[in-house]
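Q: Please design a sequence for this.
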């Protein structure tokens, strides 16, 4: 009697593995909510710090809670000497995501409460990472340009302080707002690959730093967060807006994946793209220079060509990549910026996983060789 072949869900596509109270994509309206609030409204009206509080605590902060949250986050921003020295010792040839992954792992190794998985201890660790990761990213951004790090400024908000630490100055409020919008949009997206990675590690009752280290590794890949960096490389490769259609035809014929397009969940367009695209359009208008105009024209031409050729829409990485370029960040810093935001979603999911934990351990259908005896001697060469 032959057993029925199990149904395989490669890539876990379409598989519902658990419940979550943190966020959801509503397919019918192509929208995204964090704790029930539409992300469009959050991006328009709330700061990134307020959204972090919402994701972690389930509610937007009141005035006193926000003051307390900001004070604690700002106090935790500086790196200690050992961490700073460790980071300067890493090769400049390594990717900034490797620096970030190493930093998270090192911060865990330094924390005497690393193995305390209680909700209170994990709340402190989450805030510590939220506060310190921008300091790591900014110091590394400057190191690659041969510049000394700039200390965090406790008088500045999360987004402003990051510009200050990267460039020694804060740009106009509109640019800061565009950056903050990107942080709000990147903060959380349910069971995406990096968040699921964090949940898998957490499900073994490992510590929060280990889960986040693994999540950074998952986000680095170009099919996930690494796509915002890959978008910029692709635009540089194409160069001339008039080449967009011809380049796309060649890339599709070569079976290349077009970076910043397509999505596992959204099939009719990423709900976050219109908001980020509007923010990008504002940056382009503000820059008012031929280089920004060329890039924006190319960006639009490729989007139209892709829709026409394949019916595939851009995802958030498509407008975010170009926006970060126009803000002056080095291309290899784009995915680390994604981490500075997604740390909120990852840690919210780690907390949720621990609250109702079950070891995550799926099955596989074996199709290797049939059972066979181990030879008693080496085969002759
Ligand atoms: C924040 C984020 O992480 S968003 C995702 C960022 N990643 C990218 O932008 C990388 C480029 N995009 C992709 O590789 C894919 O769209 C993914 C990985 C995001 C989603 O992949 P899946 O859900 O597995 O979609 P899948 O690969 O099944 O795509 C369906 C079809 O569309 C095609 N397709 C999807 N995205 C693309 C793309 N970007 N370029 C070319 N073809 C694409 C696939 O080749 C496939 O065609 P086929 O049916 O002829 O084989
Ligand atoms: O949900 C996904 O698969 C990828 C994504 O858009 C995200 O993580 O923001």
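A: Design:
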């Amino acid at each position: 009697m032959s057993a029925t072949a199990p149904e395989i869900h490669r890539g876990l596509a379409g598989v519902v593995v658990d419940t979550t109270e943190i966020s959801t994509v509503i397919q019918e309206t192509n929208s995204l909510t964090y704790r029930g609030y539409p992300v469009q409204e959050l991006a328009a009206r709330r700061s990134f710090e307020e959204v972090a509080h919402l994701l972690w605590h389930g509610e937007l902060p009141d005035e006193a809670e926000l003051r307390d949250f900001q004070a604690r986050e700002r106090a935790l921003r500086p790196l200690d000497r050992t961490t700073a020295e460790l980071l300067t010792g890493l090769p400049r040839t390594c990717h900034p995501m490797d620096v970030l992954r190493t930093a998270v792992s090192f911060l865990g190794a330094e924390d005497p409460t690393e193995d305390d998985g209680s909700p209170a201890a994990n709340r402190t660790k989450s805030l510590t990472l939220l506060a310190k990761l921008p300091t790591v990213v900014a110091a590394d951004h400057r190191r690659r340009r041969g510049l000394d790090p700039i200390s965090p400024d406790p008088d500045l908000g999360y987004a402003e302080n990051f510009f200050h630490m990267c460039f020694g100055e804060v740009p106009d409020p509109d640019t800061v707002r565009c950056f903050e919008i990107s942080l709000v949009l990147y903060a959380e997206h349910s069971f995406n690959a990096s968040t699921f990675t964090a949940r898998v590690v957490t499900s073994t009752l490992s510590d929060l730093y280990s889960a986040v280290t693994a999540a950074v590794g998952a986000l680095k890949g170009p099919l996930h967060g690494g796509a915002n960096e890959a978008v910029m490389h692709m635009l540089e490769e194409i160069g001339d807006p008039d080449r967009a259609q011809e380049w796309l035809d060649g890339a599709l014929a070569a079976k290349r994946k077009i970076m910043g397009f397509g999505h596992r969940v959204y099939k009719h367009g990423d709900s976050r793209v219109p908001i980020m695209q509007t923010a990008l359009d504002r940056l382009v208008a503000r820059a008012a220079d031929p280089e920004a105009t060329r890039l924006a024209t190319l960006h639009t031409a490729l989007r139209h060509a892709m829709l026409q050729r394949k019916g595939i829409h851009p995802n958030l990485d498509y407008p975010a990549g170009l926006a970060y370029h126009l803000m002056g960040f080095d291309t290899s810093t784009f995915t680390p910026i994604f981490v500075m935001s997604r740390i909120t979603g990852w840690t919210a999911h780690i907390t949720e996983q621990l609250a109702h934990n079950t070891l995550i351990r799926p099955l596989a259908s074996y199709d290797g060789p049939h059972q066979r005896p181990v030879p008693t001697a080496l085969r002759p060469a």
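Q: Thanks. Anything notable?
A: The chain has two domains: 32-222+331-356, 227-327. Residues 52 and 151 are 23 Å apart (CA to CA).
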